[in-house]
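Q: Sequence in, structure out?
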Amino acid sequence: MAKTLVLQFINTMNKTSTLSIENPIEPVDPVKVNTVMDQIIAANVFITSGGELLSKKGAYVVERNVDDIEL
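A: Exactly. Output:
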């Protein structure tokens, strides 16, 4: 199973921008995620096509199963 932590932000144009992190440390700590998202916004290091990241929208973990098919 592959897991991805998805962080959602609102940018200057009021659009959603996402940052995906493969194989996050588990269990995912909501307090740490919140703190890191605040730090990302404060550092202003990511500029999107819709402008700077202004606020947090949400965060979630995506889990997917991959089954290889033998040919």
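The mean pLDDT is 95.
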